[in-house]
Amino acid sequence: MSPSTGVLSTTPTTINSNQEFYLSANILIPYGIVMTLILVFGSVGNVLTILVLRCPEHKRKNITPLMINLAIVDIVIIVFGYPVVVASNYTSSGLNVRESRISCIWSGFINGSTGIASIANLTMMSLVMFHGVSSVTKTTKISTIKMAAIITFTWVYGVVAMIPPLVGWNEFVPGASGISCCPNWVPETKAGVAYNMLLVFIGFVLPLCVIIFCYYRIYSFIRIQQPTSGNASVEASRRKSQIKMMRMIAMSIAAFVLSWSPYCLVSIIATIRGTNTLTPSEAEVPDLLAKASVIYNPIVYTVMNDRFRATLLRIIPCNSFFSREVKPTSDSVSRSAGSIIDNANSFSEKRRSQKYQSEVF
């Protein structure tokens, strides 16, 4: 690997004994543009997500701290991981992650640890939802200390999983595309192969199995569960809110899994075969899919959660500029008065229902 190789060079550069690749503008510039879009939309979307979830109508839910933590994880990788890759694609002095060993280690560690922390966080969200659904006759509120421990665990889990390459058990090297760094998926030692298999298991297979188990138990519980409280309508409203939230989190999980599955599959094949099977341009596809996972959650929350969407529209500064004041007519006043009278009859029941809904997860 020559440190003087430029970005637009067409000279093959050896990553390891099994791989050579070409760096050209046809590869780097489109990749850099897509990464820039991911960085911008991911930053804006996740910052807005945190602002929305900090509003009073969302703060009481058990699931909210984990949703905020997931957004923070995405922001960490966007701020500390992606700029290295983006800068490498636009610089004319060379691909930084290839020229600097420290940059490569930093990029690989941040990308890996935050990715695993994300799926660990999604796993904890599934467990919290299962706890909320199965705890019908008792309070489901999770204490602050317990929630802090859960959030800390997700970070520790991600960091610990990526420590071995720092201490000599495998290593961080440029990936198949030669643009960003990752664990060496084509190791030359049995120890490296063992670490790769362990990493895939604890970073993808195990969390996915726990998530599937939780959703299976949740589905089974809801299917056979019968109302147990005196107020069936309140419990039905609570269950409806739970199902909506479960669908939203399930969509977030599905988006994450679909984003990372191609990268995971390609990495496993490379480890088993002992060589990268994709060309540098082909290797960009699973790499970009995995990195794009940071933009999906805000989209899922906005599309699938009415309350989240309403809060988002309320806090966006420019929203008030486009909104127009509507003056009430006599007909609308009459309809409003009638609506108030009708709503007054069911006010107490709605308040009880909202109390349960606000603490659904």
TrEMBL record:
GO molecular function, one term: G protein-coupled receptor activity
GO CC list: membrane
Main location per the UniProt record: membrane
SUPFAM superfamilies: Family A G protein-coupled receptor-like
Alphabetical list of Pfam families matching this protein: 7tm_1
Record bears the keyword Repeat: no
UniProt keyword list: G-protein coupled receptor, Membrane, Receptor, Transducer, Transmembrane, Transmembrane helix
Transmembrane segments: 28-53, 65-85, 105-133, 145-167, 193-216, 248-272
Domain G-protein coupled receptors family 1 profile positions: 45-301
InterPro entries: GPCR_opsins, GPCR_Rhodpsn, GPCR_Rhodpsn_7TM
Protein's membrane topology: Multi-pass membrane protein
Subcellular location per the Swiss-Prot or TrEMBL entry: Membrane
PANTHER family, sorted: OPSIN (PTHR24240)
Name recorded for this polypeptide: G-protein coupled receptors family 1 profile domain-containing protein
Lineage: Eukaryota, Metazoa, Cnidaria, Anthozoa, Hexacorallia
